[in-house]
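User: Some background: our group keeps a shared notebook of sequences we're curious about, and every so often someone picks one and asks for a predicted structure to add to the entry. Today it's my turn. The entry only has the sequence so far, pasted here. Could you supply the structure so I can complete it?
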Amino acid sequence: AYTADNGCTNTSTFAITVNPMPEITVPADLTVCIDVAPFELTGALPIGGTYSGEGVASNVFNPAVAGAGSHTITYTYSDANSCTSTNTFVINVTAAPVFTTQPVSAIVIENEDALFEAATAVVGDTYQWQVKVGAGNWEDIPGATESSLTLENVTQALNGNKYRVVATGCTSTN
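Assistant: Of course. Here's the predicted structure to add to the notebook entry:
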């Protein structure tokens, strides 16, 4: 209330409206391989917000742009009352396997063994040896899933075959 010098009184009444902040839920943390194609970020609620962070453009995450490592993704949402909230989750980008030992070509005498060896920088990577006969396609060698490959008692029939190993260590989860 207000009272003037002449004794007159006046009252003004007003209300305060307090709007709640929007409650935001975000997806669980996830792990992706660096060579996964860019993908749309989804799963945060309420829908209609914006994702941001390293490797994010227009709500699309690009692992190759983000690079290997742990990346915090922020989801920002503004409601009809212009109240804005944020929440975060993490995308871990795993690098592709890096060979520390490469297999090398071998020259062997017929009926002797040929040994090929490979190794990657990360313990736990998996290996699959493959063979290419002539102009054919690369084919998995059944059971050849170790870091080394031994061809026993090689014969002339194997002459000119090409061998390679495919290492896998990057696994995406969501």
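Suggested note for the entry: DSSP finds one helix and 16 strands in the chain. Helices lie at 63-66.
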